[in-house]
Design goal:
Layout: H1 2-49, H2 56-66, H3 69-82, H4 86-93, H5 99-109, H6 114-121, H7 125-138, H8 147-152
Length: about 150
């Protein structure tokens, strides 16, 4: 009996370590995507400043990388490794949510700032605030209900 308890305790510790590793992996991948998008945005601004040279090919390449669905696929897979049922639960509870709404909910679930979410979605901070407002309406949340608190319930 004592040995079984010890084995269970060791297994639980290993599972907790696995969860911590997955959380760390998700955090690292999210921050790396944010850094990449910030860098690409800075490069694009610098290229746009120089009007004497045709930078349209480089700017198009940057735009394609900023709006890359591979980033979301990679993030979604890492997110599902950490929080498997969240996206399904929220979709079942609120079937009218779009895939962009679900992506936004996942970022909110990670408690990312508006600035970080703006970088991930390649939109302005004001647009993030608008998305928050629209999501609150879709989720039928009142003024006193917290959006993040509601999302964390799932």
């Amino acid at each position: 009996m004592e040995n079984e308890q010890m084995i269970m305790q060791i297994k639980n510790e290993k599972l907790n370590q696995d969860i911590d590793n997955k959380n760390r992996e998700l955090g690292i991948s999210t921050m790396s995507i944010i850094r990449k998008n910030k860098l690409l945005t800075k490069i694009k601004k610098e290229l746009n400043k120089n009007k004497h040279i045709d930078n349209s090919i480089a700017i198009e390449l940057i735009d394609n990388n900023l709006n890359d669905t591979k980033d979301w696929s990679f993030f979604e897979q890492a997110f599902k490794n950490v929080d498997k049922d969240f996206l399904e639960k929220i979709k079942n509870t609120h079937p009218d949510l779009t895939s962009n709404d679900l992506r936004f909910c996942a970022y909110l679930r990670l408690n990312l700032s508006s600035k970080e979410i703006a970088s991930l979605l390649n939109i302005s901070i004001k647009s993030v605030e608008t998305k928050r407002y629209r999501l609150r309406k879709k989720l039928s949340l009142g003024h006193s209900d917290g959006l993040i608190d509601h999302i964390l319930k799932f």
